[in-house]
Specification:
six-stranded mixed β-sheet, four-stranded antiparallel β-sheet, 251 residues, alpha/beta, 11 helices, 39% helix, Rossmann fold
Amino acid sequence: MSQNPPIAVEFRNVTLSRSDRALVSNLNFTIYQGEALILLGRSGSGKTTTMKLINRLLTPTTGEVLFNNIPTTQWNEIELRRKIGYVIQETGLFPHFTVEKNVGLIPSLEGWKPRQIKMRVHELLDLVGLQPDKFAERYPHQLSGGQKQRVGVARALAADPPVLLMDEPFGALDPITRLELQQEFRNLQQKLGKTVVLVTHDIQEAFVLASRIGLMSGGELIFLDTIAEFKQSSHPESLAFLQCLNSLRNT
């Protein structure tokens, strides 16, 4: 009988309310170490809110989120966030920093030595497919959208965090670049064994990247299982996404 991997993050009876309205409610689920959990849902379904509860950008109204078996409210916020890489759609790169300085920012704040930082930055640029001697001294405005996203991923990995949060990281890219980066990132995630939580409304992206899919609707997690099980789900929201996927394939 196979055992589940160790737990990276756990939601216990989590609700977050604003002005007497629940943004997310009754979240009870576990994220395992090394998996890629894709939070799928329409706009306003609560998927980004759920993800932000993990690195304490948001705090539950009731219930608790545990990271490494410790409630996030008991963590020092800065220490917690340095253990959790964060990649957003627009990358959030500092425009006045070079690529090398952007990627090396967290190690620098952690007190790494300059030579150690440089080695780490060059290692990561190689890892994400950017030649260090060509890209390290460039500034964000000198990069394409796909190159910026690669730098964003490298920066999130810089201090070797065990968990990566990704908020529609490939959504602003053209379809060809998006698929290339999705496939490259899937290979990278499997190689590094990182725990990844990625938010998307794109069912195709979910199928490329997911170990499991968490489907959200109306602030609730209505489905959580593998791609194979998702394809068999009879929930109306699952069927709507599958119908969308079939329509795309038939066009």
